[in-house]
Amino acid sequence: MENILRNLMAAAQDHCITYEQFMNTVLYHPEKGYYHRPVDKVGKKGDFYTSPTVHPVFGRTLARFFIDLINSEELPPVVCEWGAGDGRLAAAVLEEWGRLSPDTYKDLTYIMVEDSPYLRQEQLKYLPSSRPVVQYCDWGELREEYPAFCGILFSNELFDAFPVRVVENVEGVLHEVKVGVNEGGDLEEVRVPCVDRKIFQWLEAYGFPLKAGQRIEIPLMMTNWLKTTTNWISRGALLTIDYGFTEMEWREPLRKNGSLRGYYRHYKVDNPLVHPGEMDLTAHIHVDAVRKIMEEGGLAHIFTLSQKDFLLRAGIFDYLNETKVSDPFSPVHRQNRAVNTLVSESSMGNAFRALLQGKGLTGQFAKACGADQTAIHGEIQKRR
After folding, report:
1. Which of 64, 231, 333, 358 has the fewest CB neighbours in a 10 Å radius?
2. In angstroms, rounded to a whole number, what is the distance separating the alpha carbons of residues 317 and 244?
3. Is the pLDDT of residue 23 over 50?
4. d(CA 88, CA 86)
5. How confident is the model at residue 368 (pLDDT cuts 50, 70, 90)?
6. Phi first, then psi: what are they for 187, rounded to 5°?
7. Which of 241, 242, 243, 355 is nearest to 294 (CA)?
């Protein structure tokens, strides 16, 4: 990986590359990239945990939510999971869907988009061929089959993995933070005056003025993906679950250094330049910007909730079970602990946000959400 990066820098005019180029290389290089390497990345043997790997109850709760959304809005039973990973989330959603709504399950099409060949192969371990699943690797082949999308499109921890540009206010002048090599041969950050018009345009449209010494990530690739996606959706809903900050939160002093960091063997690493190709890199999303970009693409905002509130209102507490079994490792105890972890304010409950947008919907589901933001699941149960 070091040679690949040095070759990129040698070819660059100023002998340094943007953070976007760096992340795109160390994460997505077809042979050496982190996400393409044939090793476990999620779970105990990997570098981090995600909500789906905590327990299948996360996917089961999503299944309930999707079924109600499809029934309320009379959508075709088509679900597209973008950034589907190893397939564990899809397996949990499908299993619960078949149990709760066999009538819609028999007509269900579940689309999984994942560009990593290794992860697409891993999906087969969790998804028997009898399941209603179609795998795709990118936009090209997907849009040939679905030139316009109607259904539910969702992602879990997708946006935080998009490569970003990084800028910093240095004594009142906006600089771009790039990646170069020092005299000792180690990777280092290089600050140069920002001249890229796309960055200034993004900040004007979706950002805010940075204070002296403040740095922030600019998600140009994510923005382009969102604009393409909103145009692709003809009718349906877009659910995004990820961690991020609102503009007000970005402005707080404790965010002055941005959010880009790594995860390596379950430890947070503040320096994103170490362990290239062997460490996950991630940045918080701009929640308000994501909402605005989607609205520009014709998607109406339905709600933005913490993961805790979203899961509670989708009915995750229905999966809590009383038991007289004393074994703490029994399936019932495991599920109960997982529910508490997923909604805990000190764990995952407040770290993640759930955003729901829609295009061409009847308004029935949005009306239910808006009528009583504290009891979405109660309204769901009434209509069943």
Report:
1. 231
2. 25
3. yes
4. 6
5. low
6. -70, 140
7. 355
Per DSSP, the chain holds a count of helices (H) and strands (E) of: 16, 17
Calculate the alpha carbon distances from 70 to 73, 237, 376, 377, 380 in Å.
5, 9, 15, 15, 12
Task: Output the CA–CA distances (angstroms, integers) from residue 145 to 129, 135, 140, 152, in the order listed.
Answer: 20, 12, 9, 16
Element (DSSP H or E) covering residue 215: strand 215-218
Q: How far is CA 317 from CA 140, 208, 339, 365, in A?
A: 40, 39, 7, 21
Type of residue found at 144: E
Q: Of all residues in the chain, what percent carry a pLDDT higher than 70?
A: 89
Enumerate the β-bridge partners of residue 82. Answer: 113
Question: Which candidate, 175, 209, 172, 174, places its Cα nearest to that of 189?
Answer: 175
Distance set, CA 46 to CA 16, 40, 93, 117, 264 (Å): 30, 5, 23, 18, 8
Burial classification of residue 324, based on how many CB atoms lie within 10 Å of its CB (0-12 exposed, 13-18 middle, 19 or more buried): exposed
Please state, rounded to an integer, the average pLDDT across all residues of the chain: 87
Of 38-42, 122-126, 288-292, 370-374, where does mean pLDDT reach its minimum? 370-374
pTM of the model: 0.89
Count of alpha carbons within 13 Å of 232, Cβ hemisphere only? 20
Q: How far is CA 359 from the centre of its chain?
A: 20
